[in-house]
Amino acid sequence: METLHHHINPKANLSLFFASSFLLCYFSIAMSCSVTAGTDSIPTTSLISFLQSLQSAALKTFGPTSFDPKLYIDLPLKHGLAATQDAFSNLTRSPCDGEIPAPDLKAFLALYFEDAGSDLIPALPVDFVSEPEGFLPMVENPIVKAWALDVHSLWKNLSRRVSDDVKKHPEMHTLLPLPEPVVVPGSRFHEVYYWDSYWTIRGLLASKMYDSAKAIVHNLISLVDTYGHVLNGARSYYSNRSQPPLLSSMVFDIYKRTGDLAFVKKALPALLKEHRFWNSGIHRVIIRDAHGHRHTLSRYYAMWNKPRPESATIDEESASKLPNDLEKEKFYRELASAAESGWDFSSRWMSNSSDLTTLATTSILPVDLNAYIFKMEHDISFFAELLGDGFTSKKFMKASKTRYAAMKSIFWNAKMEQWLDYWLIDESDEEEVHQWKAENQNHKIFASNFIPVWTETCSSDRTNVNKIVKSLQRSGLVHDAGIATSLSNTGEQWDFPNGWAPLQHMIVEGFAKSGSTKARSVAENIAIRWIKTNYAAYKSTGAMHEKYDVEACGKIGGGGEYKPQTGFGWSNGVVLAFLEEFGWPLDRNIDC
């Protein structure tokens, strides 16, 4: 395993890369970068606290082999919480270690709980047809077309509605009530997830399922109306954090297909609320650049300093080596903040890639988060203009230009021709303003370094795009089956050799839409590799997968804190989006 200062790209000759002093100073001051408000955490619920106790007891009884802590936190109650707690406390326990005999715990689970995920009921989408009119017209190869229809048909398997009991008795479920039907990712993920939903929507749009796409957005808007932001996922235990903010992109893409202005009008107030969430309080950071100009950027920062309920037993084990409760609370916040990023977990957030407890998510200004917010501001300006609100349109166009200037000043590295995350290593001044230093850019190479090309402004300069294309080609990220997440093989799932559908899509689409012939050619080549690996894995396993190993065509990804999952919403969506964009000629082979 390599530590942070070892990840130097020899081709870039980066003499200013993180000095060893970074690691020495990190633990003494990194957390001091956090604003005072960051010490607050939202309260948990009695149900979640009890289910965490059950989760811990189940681990002790059944052992760690194939144990999934999320299963227990997702269990719906059959009876009231008080009665369930009483029955649990009356179970026989070993006098030595408090272990509950396995038969007794199994009987208790059967008597007092429904199955995890049973509070979401299969529901056929109202706009699903087996072969939509005008479906993927540029796919000429009949084998690929047949497979694409198979992927399209998976929307039926992933579509659900929240059971009436969740709405009648919300105190008996961690699942949140939602007004419209949902599309889940698949497997252990029995609920809607925020950023997953963008690529699900892209697939639904390719499948001509516009009503289903709108329903997803309406559900996310309902979360903003209730909580002030879109939650990580539609569970009560996710209310302490969000995920990459892509709601405006969902609205934009649906509007471009449907021209539904009423839909935009309904969404705009929620987008304004979400923008405030990401640009105030604990998410907001002020930094002064090398020329003395102040910039405001955003970071991930969860409102939580306890073990994540869905992974509490794992988090407690990871934190067990830390010396005191204060250090554990800091670590738990970093875990939850990394989960807010969607990249849970990655060496990107760690000062030592072999030690998860060195996560420092809240002390990093992420390139991709600010690219998403830049696009959000651009989208809001566009929507406001459509609706005749010139004041708001101008305000957000100015905000987007201001953020773009900040991204260029703080993140852009002209030598590498990439955008680099910035580490808030140094303490802020008395006004809580950080001073930019070149050595605090993270010169490690991640796929996120290229995500800004997905935004219109960052991909519209053809000369610059061609330089970025060359940078990607020499980065070491591009492999036989797609773009790797990083160059570091740490065992974490958001690292090498895993490739993820969202990262492929944003980089490919950014290049494809740039207007550069060279960039589009590279984009199509990557898309072909990704489509082939998805097809090969589907052919051999009969399933679409959450992630893939980019080292070899058809190889499934691994690593992380849970077993590889199938389904799979965003993988399905990206394959369909790529086939819609690039097609598949009759004479092109789909096999590896």
Automatic annotation (TrEMBL):
Reactions that this protein is recorded to catalyse: alpha,alpha-trehalose + H2O = alpha-D-glucose + beta-D-glucose
Signal peptide per UniProt: 1-32
Enzyme Commission number: 3.2.1.28
Record InterPro entries: 6-hairpin_glycosidase_sf, 6hp_glycosidase-like_sf, Glyco_hydro_37, Glyco_hydro_37_CS
Domain of life: Eukaryota
Coiled-coil parts of chain: none
Keywords on record: Glycosidase, Hydrolase, Signal
Record SUPFAM superfamilies: Six-hairpin glycosidases
GO biological process: trehalose catabolic process
Molecular function GO labels: alpha,alpha-trehalase activity
Homology family: Belongs to the glycosyl hydrolase 37 family.
Protein known as: Trehalase
